[in-house]
Design a protein that fits this description.
Layout (H helix, E strand, L loop, with lengths): L14 H51 L11 E6 L5 E7 L15 E6 L5 E2 L3 E6 L5 E2 L9 E7 L2 E7 L5 E3 L1
Antiparallel strand pairs: 1-2, 1-5, 2-3, 4-7, 5-6, 7-8, 8-9
């Protein structure tokens, strides 16, 4: 007696099908990796921008609350010095009126420092002052101060943090 011959259905992929699938995956990943890399660099700039804005607001709050001010007089300033090309910046108290950007690093009266993350650095040396008297931004003249820009950059691009005459800290 003959047993019925059972035919097994073959359910494997051929070598050609596997090579085509792998080739398509390589093409797609080759197109995605450069855009992901630029995305990461842009996000590092955004993170550094938010970090600087946060620290500027902290220093502004110290000026508003009078931290470090002489009890006899509120004639003084909290300052932040960004050094071009350096990821470290310094915050300090100065009583010179009008305040000027100190030449020494770290400045006299330094109360602390911060570091801009992710290899981002300020493009130029910039000083920002917040008054003990009213907490606003001081531009060094009796006229309404213009916006000041703190430009942060890498080889991939740049972003800016702005402070307007009323002391509002914002970004582009």
């Amino acid at each position: 007696m003959l047993l019925p011959y059972s035919i097994k259905k073959n359910s494997a992929f051929t070598l050609v099908e596997v090579l085509i699938t792998v080739g398509i995956m390589i093409l797609i990943s080759g197109a995605l990796i450069p855009s992901f890399s630029s995305y990461i660099k842009n996000q590092n700039l955004v993170q550094a921008q938010e970090y600087v804005k946060s620290d500027l607001r902290s220093v502004q709050n110290k000026a508003l609350t009078g931290v470090g001010a002489s009890m006899a007089t509120y004639s003084g300033y909290w300052g932040v010095k960004f050094v071009g090309g350096s990821s470290t910046y310094y915050y300090f108290i100065t009583s010179t009126n009008p305040p000027t950007c100190p030449l020494v690093v770290p400045p006299l009266g330094t109360q602390g420092s911060g570091t801009i993350p992710a290899g981002v650095t300020p493009v130029a040396t910039t000083c920002v002052f917040f008054s003990f008297a009213y907490g606003g931004f001081y531009a060094g003249s009796g006229a309404k101060p213009a916006d000041i820009e703190i430009k942060l950059g890498t080889a991939a691009g740049s972003k800016s943090v702005f402070i307007n005459g009323a002391g509002l800290i914002y970004s582009n």
